[in-house]
Each structure stands twice: as structure tokens, then as C-alpha cells.
Write a structure and sequence with these properties.
0% of the residues lie in helices and 51% in strands. The protein has 120 residues and is mostly beta strands.
Length: 120
């Protein structure tokens, strides 16, 4: 059973940076596509970025050029480097793992989430 544990969230001033990490266990990490979603209060969970098992990446328009997703297969970890943070990036960020590269639907394994709060 896949288990995901996120870390790295926190409170940061607008324009600042954070790096989120997601530790994967319970299966073969290199086979999985990994994604980061976020959910702000009273909003639906939205896809932020994903990286396939082959290393291809995709970003939401709202974070393109500011966020970078990466993975370290030796450490079974996926990262989300967030730069130039804005107050609208405030949300709980969730790590997701799936064997499919289709991130158009909400499924797969989820972490418990890590809170990111950006103040102006």
C-alpha cells in the first residue's frame, strides 16, 4: 500500500520561497507518476503540477514559471520548489501518486497535506 508523507509547508511572505517534499513508500516509486494538488478553503482541489515516471512535467498556468516539480528516485521523494509566492498560493498542498500519467481526475494515493500560507 502506497504511503505519502508531505513536509515543508509553512508561513512565508509574498515573494518568498518554499520547497515541499513528499516521501513515498510501499511500492516501486520509479513506476509512479507523482503530482501536487492544492485546496484552498471553500475551493475544489486543483492540480498544481505533475511529473511522470519518465520525467515529463506539466504545470498549471497559475504556477508556470514560478514552481518546479522534480523527483529523486534514489530517495523515493518528489519535490515542489515554489518561488515568487503569492497570497493566492495559500492552500493545503497534497501529494498524489498514481500508475497512470492521466491527471485529469482525482484518484490514486494521497498524503495528509501540508499547509502553505503566504502573507502580503
Amino acid at each position: 500500500q502506497v504511503q505519502l508523507v508531505e513536509s515543508g509547508g509553512g508561513l512565508v511572505q509574498s515573494g518568498g520561497s518554499l520547497r515541499l517534499s513528499c516521501a513515498f513508500s510501499g511500492s516501486i516509486f520509479s513506476l509512479y507518476s507523482m503530482g501536487w494538488y492544492r485546496q484552498a478553503p471553500e475551493n475544489q482541489r486543483e492540480l498544481v503540477a505533475f511529473i511522470t515516471s519518465g520525467g515529463s512535467t506539466m504545470y498549471a498556468d497559475s504556477v508556470q514559471g514560478r514552481f518546479t516539480i522534480s523527483r529523486d528516485n534514489a530517495k523515493n521523494t518528489v519535490y515542489l520548489q515554489m518561488n515568487s509566492l503569492k497570497p493566492e498560493d495559500t492552500a493545503v498542498y497534497y501529494c498524489n501518486a498514481r500508475l497512470s500519467a492521466d491527471f485529469s481526475r482525482l484518484f490514486g494515493s494521497w498524503g495528509q497535506g501540508t499547509q502553505v500560507a503566504v502573507f502580503s
